[in-house]
Design a protein that fits this description.
Layout (H helix, E strand, L loop, with lengths): L5 H24 L9 H36 L13 H26 L9 H29 L1 H12 L2 H22 L4 H20 L1 H7 L7 H29 L20 H7 L1
Helix pairs in contact: 1-4, 1-5, 2-3, 2-4, 3-4, 3-6, 3-7, 4-5, 4-6, 4-9, 6-7, 6-9, 7-9, 8-9
């Protein structure tokens, strides 16, 4: 705790986690130059991702890990070891399978919640990024608080900084891609597009987690070409690179599908009438 006291430490941690996520949201929104979504709607989606998606995902993951551990203990066969949350295999199963499926599903529900606001296909990834960035913000804050309680303010801020360059962007980009598929399905009626992009989001999430867990994976498979510290650094660099590439791809998708007359404009949208020179002269 600093001389400011616990309250101000908490304020500093909240701002450190929140401001990068909001800056990323503004960056994503800037990609939508035509009919940009209102901030009130985007912040509502952001709040849903931060509170509902994060907390419900955490609860579901705890339940699933608990059920799996109980099952593994009741039937202690080697093939069920991955269900035991207390084992290394169980931790990998949580990080690479359970968390991606659960978290992407809950974040996707935030996009579906905003369905009535979709006018262009580009709106889908914008709302998806809003939900995902909200999720990333609150999850990062929780991790930062944990580091703060064990290592002080510097440890909390350090972890928040690293996650703001990696995990926050990853959550925004994966849900943006689901939003893109969902908007295509809703506005263009292109079959089961949303389901396909949901699995893409899960795959992206799992791949990122694998990069971030590179040191632990190499240790588990007994590959000793790198020291633990080297693997940690390489994994972090790869994860950050992956996250920035993913969000930049999402921004490019938004830009490509956001223009006047874009295919997929919702039937609920009616463009404003075009004023001609004759109309102007009549008013004068």
């Amino acid at each position: 705790m600093t001389d400011f006291g616990a309250f101000w430490d908490l304020v500093i941690l909240v701002l450190a986690a929140l401001l990068p996520a909001l800056l990323y949201l503004a960056w994503v929104r800037k990609s939508e130059r035509f009919m940009a979504e209102p901030w009130t709607a985007l912040l509502s989606a952001f709040a849903y991702g931060a509170v509902v998606a994060t907390l419900v995902s955490a609860a579901l993951e705890v339940i699933l890990v608990g059920v799996g551990t109980a099952f593994s203990n009741a039937f202690p066969a080697p093939e069920f070891t991955f269900l035991n949350g207390n084992s290394s295999a169980g931790l990998f199963f949580l990080v690479l399978v359970i968390a991606p499926f659960v978290e992407e599903g809950l974040k996707a529900s935030g996009v579906v919640r905003s369905a009535s606001r979709l006018r262009l296909v580009s709106d889908g990834p914008v709302y998806g990024a809003s939900v995902g960035l909200g999720f990333g913000f609150f999850e990062t804050l929780l991790y930062g608080l944990g580091a703060f309680l064990t290592g002080g303010l510097a440890a909390g801020l350090g972890l928040i900084f690293v996650r703001s360059l990696s995990s926050v962007l990853l959550h925004g980009s994966t849900t943006a891609m689901f939003g893109y598929g969902y908007a295509q399905q809703r506005l263009r009626g292109t079959g089961y597009t949303a389901a396909g992009y949901y699995f893409l989001a899960v795959l992206m999430h799992a791949s990122f987690n694998a990069l971030a867990s590179l040191s632990a994976i190499l240790l588990a498979v007994h590959v000793n070409v790198l020291t633990s510290a080297q693997a940690d650094v390489i994994g972090l660099v790869l994860a950050v690179t992956y996250a920035f590439a993913a969000i930049e791809h999402a921004r490019s998708v938004i830009a490509r599908t956001n223009f006047p007359g874009a295919q997929g404009v919702s039937s609920r949208y009616r463009p404003p009438p075009v004023r001609t020179r004759t109309d102007v002269s009549r008013k004068q």
